[in-house]
Structure formats: structure tokens, C-alpha cells
Amino acid sequence: MKFFIDTANLKDIKKGISIGVVDGVTTNPSLMGQENITNHKSINEHYKKICEMIDGDVSVEVISNNYHDMISEGVLLSKIHKNIIVKVPMGLDGIKAIKFFTDNNIKTNCTLVFSVSQALLASKVGATYISPFIGRLDDIDNDGLNLIKDIKIAYSNYNVKTKILAASIRSGLHISKCSLIGVDCITSPLKHILSLFNHPLTDIGIKKFENDFNRYINK
Ligand code: E4P
Q: How far is ligand 1, taken at its centre, from the CA of residue 133, in Å?
């Protein structure tokens, strides 16, 4: 399972990469809004910096909400760097735009996927990735992981090539459950990736080894 880091923050990306477990990056307009970016030129420069930090896919989202503007914006974004994946929101215009990008060899990530039917539509037009949102479904008392399971079944039924990139991750548990379902990738804020390291018995074990060594050998 690939681990993408869900942030536009260069420090977090650097830290994630330095641990050695991060395969790529996903951004979205809200995450970009948290960085100190003031104009369109800086947006593209920021994306370029991220792409130069990692030898892996970097999803960057179009802001436009109609087919023609999505096309022109996506084409420009795709030219920033070879690692760029154009992220397109689910919807009629989005699906048409993904079809255009597929036909023109531009890789895509269909975002804001909340149902199996949406996942099917994205795969029909050749999306490279789909991003089903777990946490936002949980937030409205739906079962986000259940959606991931169902999409996995539907895609397996037809040997679909589109990769499942589980998004809107809210815990380390979401990440490990995704691996049991067998998704291709997850994208998560750094804090939940770091939480995967934790287990109280590991901490107790380390302390005990240290104490025993000092007690018997290092007297
Ligand atoms: C990823 O592609 C999404 O933009 C992201 O995971 C959304 O997460 P959130 O629901 O925590 O904002």
C-alpha cells in the first residue's frame, strides 16, 4: 500500500519523506490555503517545490468548476512537473474533463468520491486514482470504511485499473483498516502516519530492555 501525505506544508512533507515511508503527496485548495501563498504564480511555484522534493505522484487540484476551464487549468498544471496528477472533483464536468485528460495522457485523481456509483463513473473515463473520503462520511454517521470495502469489491469484479486512494483519513486505525481492505494507497496528514509507530507495549519493552541491561551488565 502506498502512503501519500495529505498536506501542502513543505516542512511536513520533508519530515514525512525523511522517515522513508512516504510515496507521494496530495494537496487540495483548503490545504493550499493554509500555506503562505498569495498569488497564482506562487501556487505553481509551490507545486513545483513539492514535486522536486519527492520522486512520486503529487496530486494538485483544479479550482475551476466547468469543463472548459478545468481542461485549460489541468493542462497548465500538468506542465509544471512530470510528477503532477491533476485532481478533478467528481461531477458531470469533472468526469468529462477526466475523459479529456485520459485521452491526452494526463494522469488524474477524481476527488470527492462518496459512493460506489461515483467510483464506477471515474473508472469508466480512465481516472488514474479515485479519492473516496472516509472521515467526511464518518462525520455524517455513515461508515467511510464500508464505502472503501464496497468500491474494492466493485473494482475487483471488473479488474478495474483505476487505483483506490483512500482519503480524509482521521486516524492510524483508518490506515491499518485500509490495508486489510487492500486499497492501493492512502493519503493522510503526517500526525496519523506518525501514530502508526505507537504501541504502549513497545514503549514498556524498550524501557525494560534498558533497565535490565543497566541492572545486570552495565553495573
Ligand atoms: C485528499 O485528497 C483530500 O483532499 C483530503 O484527504 C480531505 O481530507 P479532510 O476530509 O480531512 O479535509
A: 7
